[in-house]
Amino acid sequence: MPTIGKELLATTQVLTLRETFQIARGAADEETVVVAELRHDDIVARGEGAPVDYWGETPEGIAAALEAEGLELLGDDLFAGEAILRRVAAWDGPQGAKMALDGIVHDWLGKRLGQPTWRVLGTDRVTPPTSYTIGIDSVEGTADKTRRATGYAVLKIKVGGPGDVERLRAVRAETSARLRIDGNEGWDLETARELTPELISLGVEFVEQPFPAADLDSFHAYGELSPRLPVLIDEGCRDLGSVAPIAGYADGIVIKLAKCGGIREALRMVHAARALQLKVMFGCMIESELGIAQAAQLGSLADYIDLDGHLLISNAPFTGLGLKDGRLVLSDGPGLGVEPARG
């Protein structure tokens, strides 16, 4: 498969968090993503891939896979998006590498056509309001973070640690914003049963992944509780094959490009979820504006958006993704609409 005239470079990019970010699985002060850059036909196209660490993926592994096999997977004709992305989907490489290649294809096509990717896809430039995430902290720390999270209509509170209810009370005392919570598999059924009445009284909209992905018994048992919070599945949702089983025990799916492999598979997941009457939320890892922009191209198709990874970092390697009244606003520039930040 000739690749003359193409050049692909994959580099790691350290993203520094504004403050320590803690969830039920652990805490971090920085995250590393991989930026892939293709030069072809006088166009520079980019895509980003984020490792799913609990799957054992690493930035170094993603970068190595891209440089070893990326050009062959892309092939000669970048207009042949379906054929390319079928090859990428069948590849046994890391999902983060698939996300980056998918991003390159969509960025290149938009730039070649002189149109934003969202217009090529037929979606909208403005997304639903994104939630802004507040990690696990003390009650006082949580209240302080809430006071500083101005301009957002929706807050997502990470739970799964001691004092969840007290922290949520502190949040509600500081804001009238819509509240969502994310357990990151940190609860058991007894905890969920005990906390649900107060969570409902505090106006929590839904809970994301309260139980371990494999603990379907707890999901089924919680589903029989009345009243209860709607449940959306993150860690238990990978790709299209995950969607139909989830319809049997939860109310919605969380789509992350780092897990499903990119825009093409994410769009298939959206259509499947709609057919099964599941709610759809787009989520993210800690990513730069490049990675977030890839998911945001489909954001207008979702019920909920949790695409705030770029808002949690202090360094910004890319720019071009807007934010207005708590909503992401996609660039009207060609392709994904983001470019390396100057200086």
TrEMBL record:
Keyword tags: Isomerase, Magnesium, Metal-binding
Record bears the keyword rRNA-binding: no
Span of domain Mandelate racemase/muconate lactonizing enzyme C-terminal: 139-232
tRNA-binding listed as a keyword: no
GO molecular function: metal ion binding; racemase and epimerase activity, acting on amino acids and derivatives
InterPro entries found in the cross-reference section: DgoD-like (IPR034593), Dipeptide_epimerase (IPR034603), Enolase-like_C_sf (IPR036849), Enolase-like_N (IPR029017), Enolase_C-like (IPR029065), Mandel_Rmase/mucon_lact_enz_CS (IPR018110), Mandelate_racemase_C (IPR013342)
Comment on bound cofactor: Binds 1 Mg(2+) ion per subunit.
Sequence positions that bind Mg(2+): 182, 208, 234
Stored PROSITE patterns: MR_MLE_2 (PS00909)
Cofactor: Mg(2+)
SMART domains per UniProt: MR_MLE (SM00922)
Record-annotated active site: 158, 256
The enzyme's E.C. designation: 5.1.1.-
Family: Belongs to the mandelate racemase/muconate lactonizing enzyme family.
Name this protein carries in UniProt: Dipeptide epimerase
Organism for this UniProt entry: Solirubrobacter ginsenosidimutans
